[in-house]
Design a protein that fits this description.
There is one protein chain. The chain is an alpha/beta fold and 298 residues long. It has 12 helices and 14 strands. The protein has a single domain, classed as Rossmann fold (3-Layer(aba) Sandwich), CATH 3.40.50.10680. 44% of the residues are buried.
Length: 298
């Protein structure tokens, strides 16, 4: 069994490649939920949704969010009616958000709601929220403190970051099944996701790091030189007081990382790293990278 720690788009691309070599029922993905929010009356969990759509065959792999072929009539009408829905939510995508919101209102945990939706969508992989408790990544700018989604989607990541905050009033503790999924895995793979907003929230859940210390962990750098493959990782690393590169990424994972993976083009040196082509520009390259990691001997 392989367990992934995932957020954003980097790790889902790697998961897509792994599916060529491992059956879905042998894949577990522990997913960042610190970017979740209630919007327009329904519950958006972007990193979970990406995995649900990937495994169900519905993911728009041109954007790596939302559902392929979706329409946006409800979103457009909400905008016309003056609703500040700054995230473009498709109509079918919104149906999933509504269904999850209804389950949460009925008292189901996020883990239970995800399992129910996975079953209804015919998904055999195990998709686990990192926690069932409230966790939110906030960005403090010069003028206000805003949700990460507002920073990245509404403001296109253009605002200066003064501080990255994690609002977690109860801890949080790892979600149901998370620790077992780490402990029982043949290998745990941290994909090339944003370290600050995609992976650190998972690591901050109690019990996760001790479980990783006792597991075989592979971590893939999201950087080539001082630039991320995609997304706002560079600005977020700077805001954390870190250089945006593989060396700083490794420093965040070194206490539990058994094998660190860098791109073959990365000029930054991390001693003992494993070099691969990590630019997953198509499904074939994703599959090749996944195969290299799966075949790595402990």
């Amino acid at each position: 069994m392989i367990t992934f720690l995932s957020g954003g788009t980097g790790t889902p691309k790697l998961v897509r490649g792994a599916r060529r070599h491992v059956p879905d029922h042998a894949i577990t993905v522990i997913v960042n939920t610190a970017e979740d929010l209630w919007i327009s009356g329904s519950h958006l969990s972007p990193d979970i949704d990406t995995l649900l759509y990937l495994f169900s065959g519905d993911l728009n792999t041109d954007t790596w969010w939302g559902m392929k072929g979706d329409s946006f009539q409800t979103h457009q009408e909400l905008i016309r009616l003056g609703v500040d829905e700054y995230i473009g939510i498709g109509d079918r995508d919104r149906a999933l958000h509504i269904a999850r919101g209804e389950l949460l209102r009925k008292g189901f945990s996020l883990t239970e709601a995800t399992q129910i939706l996975s079953s209804r969508m015919g998904i055999e992989a195990s998709i686990l929220p990192m926690t069932d408790e409230e966790v939110t990544t906030l960005i403090r700018t010069d003028t206000s403190t805003i949700h990460f989604q507002e920073y990245w989607v509404k403001h296109r990541g253009t605002l200066p970051i003064r501080e990255i905050l994690r609002y977690a009033p109860t801890g949080p503790s790892a979600g149901a099944g998370v620790i077992k999924a780490i402990q029982s895995a043949d290998r745990v793979i941290i994909g090339p996701s944003n370290p600050i907003t995609s992976i650190l929230p998972i690591l901050e859940c109690s019990g996760v790091i001790p479980a990783l210390v006792d597991s075989f962990v592979i971590a893939v750098s999201p950087f080539i030189g001082n630039a991320p493959v995609s997304g706002p990782a560079a600005a977020l690393m700077h805001a954390r007081g870190l250089s945006p590169d593989s060396a700083s990424t490794f420093s965040l994972y070194k206490d539990f990382c058994d094998l660190f993976v860098q791109d073959i083009r990365d000029p930054v040196t991390v001693s003992g790293s494993f070099r691969c082509d990590t630019l997953m520009t198509d499904e074939g390259k994703s599959a090749a990278l996944a195969e290299a990691l799966i075949k790595t001997i402990k």
